[in-house]
Amino acid sequence: MLLSRAEGVHVWDADGRRYLDATSGAFCAQLGYSRPDLVLAMTEAASRLPHARPSLAEGEETAAYRRELLARAGAPFTRVVLTSSGSEAVDVALKIAHRYQVASGRPERHRVLSLAGHYHGQTLAALDVTGWEVRRAPYADRLGPRRSGPAAFCRRCFRSLVYPDCRLACADAAVEELPAAVILETVPAAGLGAPIPPPGYLARMRTLCHGAGALWIADEVLTGFGRTGDLFAWKRLVTRVDASGAAPDRDAIPDLVVFGKGAGAGYAPLGGVLLADRVVRALEPDGFAHHQTYGGNPIAAAVGRAVLRALVDEGVMERVRAREARIEDLMRSLDVEPGVFDVRGLGFLWGVELAQDEAGTPFARAKRVAERALEECRERGMLVHASTGCAGGDAGDLILVAPPLVAEDEALEEMAATLRAALAATSLAGTR
Ligand SMILES: Cc1ncc(COP(=O)(O)O)c(C=O)c1O
Questions:
Q1: pTM (two decimals)
Q2: Quick check: CB of 260 below 6 Å from ligand 1?
Q3: Is 133 in the pocket of ligand 1 (CB under 6 A)?
Q4: Residue 343: what are its φ and ψ, rounded to 5°?
Q5: What's the pLDDT at 259?
Q6: What's the CA angle centered on 21, arms 383 and 372, to 5 degrees?
Q7: In the chain, which residues fall in CATH 3.90.1150.10?
Q8: What is the reported pLDDT for 430?
Q9: From the CA of 221, how far away is ligand 1's center (Å)?
Q10: What fold does the segment set 3-34+316-425 form as a domain?
Q11: Is the distance from the beta carbon of residue 253 to the nearest atom of ligand 1 less than 6 Å?
């Protein structure tokens, strides 16, 4: 596709055709397009100080962004390393985990465990910890041995167990050695279509990691910056209550939080890693430095500040929480459509898994079901994301939607109606 312009929740191609952008670009345009405040923030920063050499100095905008982000993230985070993408931020987190283990007297600890179906980015180090086979497979010869445990994916439980009787067996099976770190997407999106980990899962992960002397790295690249109704998905999930009214994840705070995408809202490349204070202090004797030419760039930082202002001061995150029931109703109404196996998600992040039958038998890959559904959406003027591999290997078809967080009810209704029509046109009932 060749795109020429964008406004609000729509983009236009070079032929003048308008599309509802139901995935916020690459899951990042949280505030929609053509926001004057973001454009102004960029132009002002560009005319005042477009660049400061990271190994020597820091621009004022960047210093202010650090302060403001740390204040919004809250305790125990006391340091942030800035990058210009999510993949680089994952690399930085892996480097920090290594330095942390060295500083803790365990230099031999270098294995980082990850989870099946979880995606962590495109660089070789990020692919190395990616458990989503579709992305790993083309580079398997260049990567280390696969080290991913089972994901918290109840609809396709690795042992066909049922929560809560499963007693979170997936978490126990995932952390079964003494790793340097465990990395997980708080809500695994691109590869698994946003299954929500059950109550107690994050707390179990934290206990297992700390018991093993490992860092818990929360990859919030896709789920951060309002996507699930809070600054990060883990912040949202720790407030959940279970059937007994308790909040079992209450104290489940990651050691490192990796972010990207929505931090720059599609206007500027901005990512990074938040470090909990105990990690910062452990690194102190030798320090930790990661300097890249554009990491913490002042223009990106100025955008980051404006994004934080909008998310918090304009109440965009509350808005997501207030509209969550509406988007959930709309998305779950698709559950009865032929070929829909599961609808899952939270906030403004939803996945629709397609399968042959109620047991979840995946369609033959040769049918290209997800790709065809995406094409049907596009023909109806809507952009969605198609993904494969959620049922293992390259099997399983998913459609993901994640509209801009400012989308009005009308756009959300159009999104669900278009998806319904597109799925009908994909003729899933007759596909075998
Ligand atoms: C969870 C997660 N981590 C990391 C990345 C990589 O981010 P980037 O594309 O900015 O390198 C992505 C991108 O989709 C992602 O979804």
A1: 0.97
A2: yes
A3: no
A4: -125, 130
A5: 98
A6: 10
A7: 3-34+316-425
A8: 55
A9: 6
A10: Aspartate Aminotransferase, domain 1 (3.90.1150)
A11: no
